[in-house]
Request: fold
Amino acid sequence: MVVSILVSVTTYFLICLVFDIAFVSYGLVLSSGIPAIVSYPVSTIVINAYRKEEEARLELERLNALNNQLFSVLSHDIRGPVSSVHGILELLGMDLISKEEREEMIRDLSVKVDALLDLLQDVLEWTMHQRSNDQLDVQEFQVSEVWKQIEALYFYPAQKKSLKISIQPGAYTLFTNKSAYAFMCRNVFHNAIKFTPEHGYIQISFIEQENSLITIVKDGGVGMSPDQIHAIYHSDNWQSTPGTNAETGTGFGLKACIRYAHSLDGTIHIQSEAGKGTEVQIVLPMD
Reply:
């Protein structure tokens, strides 16, 4: 707009000089006012169009990155369990295994199917939230209900490692998105199982602090280095480390948990030291 005014005023002065026309005030006003009146709405439209185009470009990049991350998770964490389930079903159809082996395989199959369904649910819920960017719905619920389901879901993986699991009793209530809270707790608890060696321990406790409820998951596992913790919070890549029994993953869980916590006005704190276990605190407002 400023450039158009300067060009118009300069042109007016040149015309007056070339044709020996006397300068008049209204001519100067018109030469500066008309471009301003015309160019302002035009420039506003152009700027708004550019901003919308830039927002659309950034949104497309975000969705493309989301799709790439999801393909990585699906190809890694789902193809493996499905292949494993297929192999177990083939063995169960043969008469080459004993009754005890068959029962063990059926238990293992149940664990793999539950874990696969759990992962699918997590990915679908996370994807829907990421794509829509909508505010999460909230409801009042008992924290013990969520942990009862989680304990049942991961009973066999914990039993297979002979882990000692303790969950603090108490009637703790949250007013937040139940699915998001369950998502965070499942992933943190699953990581604790994954990185705790056989005959280790996992403790779940709760602290009411001011207007927040802190869910604490503490394990006696292998722990993490400062670089690993920094990568969880700040790296754009999804990094995964094999568990104590060579369990695999993608690094999807904790990063998604941190984003979920932020969307619920909460935080996740990780305290850990290599070889000395990990403590994860999920801090959420109670109302």
